[in-house]
C-alpha cells in the first residue's frame, strides 16, 4: 500500500528521488516498427489499413466497412439509455460554454495612418481525432477533443477509433460523436490510423492536426508524423497531487487518489499534507476503499509503486514541492483554497475545495481534460481552442511610411550580407 514519507526525516533531494522512480518510455524501442507501418500506409493507403487491422485487431474491414454508416449510428442510439444521452448533452453544454470564452478574434492597429499592423486569426482546415477503443472506451475523449475544434471553426473533423472484434465501434463513442456533429468516423486504430490521418489514403482524408490519446504505438506514431501534420501533445500516465491541511476530509482525499490510481498501474497519486493525523487517516481509507473497487488490483499496484503521502512542515513547503512535480491534476483541499491559488505556478488543472473532485473535470465541469503530464505542465497547457487556430501577421505600409524606415531596414540587411533584401527596399525609391 501507499508509503508515508515525512520531510522532517528525508531531505528534498531524496523526496524527488522517490517520486522520479516512475520510468519514462523510451520511444526508440518502438520507432522502427511504427515507422514501417507509417511507410506502408503512406505507400499503399487503404490496402495497408485493411492488412494491419486484420493483423492487429482481427477484423476484416472489407467485410464490416472502413467508414461508420448512418445505420451504425442509429443502432448506437438504440443501445444506450436516455440518461446517458442526457448526461452527454449536459457535458457538451458546459464544455462548449467554457471553450467559447477562449476564442480570439483577429485584430488590427494603426498608430500612424500610413501603417496598419495586425493579426489574422482563423481555424486550421481539418483535424483528426484519435479515440482509444479496447476494454475501456472513453466517450468523454470525443467531447474534449472535438468541441474545442468545433468552437475554433474547424470545417472538417475526422475521427478514427479501433473496431471491436465484431467490427463495430462502441455505442457510447458513436453517440457522443453524433451529438457534437462528428459523423466522419473510420474503424481503424493504432499507428496505422495516425498514418492515415497524416498522409491520407483513398478513403481517409489527410488532416492538418491530430489530437487524442492512445497507447505507446499511437504516441510513437504521433511523434514520427509531427512536421507532416501538427499534433497536440504526447500524454503520459494519469497523475493527481492533492495539497491538504488538517481540515481536509480523509475519505474524500482517498477517493480522489483512487480515481487516478484505477486508470493504470503507472498512474501516480500523491498527497502532500501538513497534518500527520490526516496522513494516517488517508492511508487507512485507501486500504478500505481500494478493496471495494472493480479495478482494485490496478489501483493497489499503482499506489504501491507510484503513490506517496508526504508530510511537510508548512504549506509553502508543500506548494514548492508540488510546483517541482508540476502535476496533471492538482487538488487544493485546505480551509481557504483561494488563498493558495496565486502561489501555485505549475499544474495542468487546479481543483479548489472539497467539492471539486478531479472526475468533475474529466466529464462535466467544462475545462478540457486533455492535460500536460510528466512534469510538462511547467511549459505546456491544456488542450484548447488555441490548438485549432492559426495566426497570420498583417503588415501594411504606405510609400511615405516605408521612406521613414528604409535606411534603417537597408542597414540591417547590409549588416547580414543580404544585398537582395536591401535592394528590395532600395528599388522602390529610385
UniProtKB/TrEMBL annotation:
MF GO annotations? histidinol dehydrogenase activity; NAD binding; zinc ion binding
Q: Which SUPFAM superfamilies match?
A: ALDH-like
Q: What is the lineage of its organism?
A: Bacteria, Bacillati, Bacillota, Clostridia, Peptostreptococcales
In which pathway is this protein known to take part?
Amino-acid biosynthesis; L-histidine biosynthesis; L-histidine from 5-phospho-alpha-D-ribose 1-diphosphate: step 9/9
Keyword Protein biosynthesis annotated: no
Q: Which reaction does it catalyse?
A: L-histidinol + 2 NAD(+) + H2O = L-histidine + 2 NADH + 3 H(+)
Which Pfam families does the protein's record reference? Answer: Histidinol_dh
Q: Where does NAD(+) bind?
A: 130, 192, 215
For this protein, the record's HAMAP family field holds: HisD
Q: How is the cofactor bound?
A: Binds 1 zinc ion per subunit.
Recorded E.C. number(s)? 1.1.1.23
A GO cellular component entry from the record: cytosol
Q: Which family does it belong to?
A: Belongs to the histidinol dehydrogenase family.
Q: Where does substrate bind?
A: 238, 260, 263, 329, 362, 416, 421
Q: What does this protein do?
A: Catalyzes the sequential NAD-dependent oxidations of L-histidinol to L-histidinaldehyde and then to L-histidine.
Keywords, A to Z, come to:
Amino-acid biosynthesis, Histidine biosynthesis, Metal-binding, NAD, Oxidoreductase, Zinc
Names of the cofactor(s): Zn(2+)
Name it: Histidinol dehydrogenase
Q: Which InterPro entries match?
A: Ald_DH/histidinol_DH, Histidinol_DH_CS, Histidinol_DH_monofunct, Hstdl_DH
GO BP, one example?
L-histidine biosynthetic process
Q: What CDD domains does the record point to?
A: Histidinol_dh
What is the scientific name of the source organism?
A: Serpentinicella alkaliphila
**Catalytic site positions:** 328-329
Q: Which residues form the signal peptide?
A: none
For Zn(2+), which residues are the binding ones?
Answer: 260, 263, 362, 421
Amino acid at each position: 500500500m501507499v508509503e508515508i514519507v515525512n520531510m522532517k526525516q528525508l531531505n528534498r533531494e531524496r523526496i524527488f528521488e522517490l517520486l522520479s522512480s516512475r520510468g519514462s518510455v523510451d520511444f526508440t524501442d518502438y520507432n522502427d516498427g511504427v515507422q514501417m507501418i507509417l511507410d506502408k500506409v503512406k505507400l499503399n493507403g487503404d490496402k495497408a489499413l485493411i492488412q494491419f487491422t486484420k493483423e492487429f485487431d482481427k477484423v476484416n474491414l472489407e467485410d464490416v466497412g472502413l467508414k461508420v454508416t448512418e445505420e451504425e449510428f442509429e443502432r448506437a442510439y438504440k443501445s444506450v439509455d436516455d440518461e446517458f444521452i442526457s448526461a452527454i448533452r449536459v457535458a457538451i453544454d458546459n464544455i462548449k460554454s467554457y471553450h467559447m470564452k477562449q476564442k480570439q478574434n483577429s485584430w488590427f492597429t494603426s498608430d500612424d495612418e500610413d501603417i496598419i499592423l495586425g493579426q489574422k486569426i482563423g481555424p486550421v482546415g481539418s483535424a483528426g481525432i484519435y479515440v482509444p477503443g479496447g476494454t475501456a472506451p472513453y466517450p468523454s475523449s470525443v467531447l474534449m477533443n472535438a468541441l474545442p475544434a468545433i468552437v475554433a471553426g474547424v470545417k472538417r473533423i475526422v475521427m478514427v477509433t479501433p473496431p471491436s472484434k465484431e467490427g463495430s465501434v462502441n455505442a457510447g463513442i458513436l453517440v457522443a460523436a453524433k451529438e457534437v456533429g462528428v459523423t466522419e468516423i473510420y474503424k481503424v486504430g493504432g499507428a496505422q490510423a495516425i498514418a492515415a490521418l497524416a498522409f491520407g489514403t483513398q478513403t481517409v482524408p489527410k488532416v492538418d492536426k491530430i489530437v487524442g490519446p492512445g497507447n505507446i504505438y499511437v504516441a510513437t506514431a504521433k511523434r514520427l508524423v509531427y512536421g507532416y501534420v501538427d499534433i497536440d501533445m504526447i500524454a503520459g500516465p494519469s497523475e493527481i497531487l492533492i495539497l491538504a491541511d488538517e481540515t481536509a476530509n480523509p475519505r474524500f482525499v482517498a477517493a480522489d487518489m483512487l480515481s487516478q490510481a484505477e486508470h493504470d498501474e503507472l498512474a501516480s497519486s500523491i498527497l502532500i499534507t501538513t497534518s500527520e493525523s490526516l496522513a494516517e487517516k488517508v492511508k487507512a481509507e485507501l486500504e478500505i476503499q481500494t478493496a471495494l473497487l472493480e479495478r482494485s488490483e490496478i489501483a493497489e499496484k499503482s499506489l504501491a509503486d507510484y503513490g506517496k503521502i508526504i508530510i511537510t512542515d508548512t504549506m509553502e513547503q508543500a506548494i514548492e514541492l508540488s510546483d517541482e512535480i508540476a502535476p496533471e491534476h492538482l487538488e487544493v483541499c485546505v480551509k481557504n483554497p483561494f488563498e493558495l491559488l496565486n502561489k501555485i505556478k505549475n499544474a495542468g488543472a487546479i481543483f479548489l475545495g472539497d467539492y471539486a473532485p478531479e472526475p468533475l473535470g474529466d466529464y462535466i465541469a467544462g475545462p478540457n481534460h486533455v492535460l500536460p503530464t510528466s512534469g510538462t505542465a511547467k511549459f505546456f497547457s491544456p488542450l484548447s481552442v488555441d490548438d485549432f487556430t492559426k495566426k497570420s501577421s498583417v503588415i501594411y505600409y504606405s510609400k511615405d511610411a516605408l521612406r521613414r524606415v528604409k535606411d534603417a531596414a537597408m542597414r540591417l540587411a547590409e549588416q547580414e550580407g543580404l544585398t537582395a533584401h536591401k535592394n528590395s527596399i532600395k528599388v522602390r525609391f529610385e
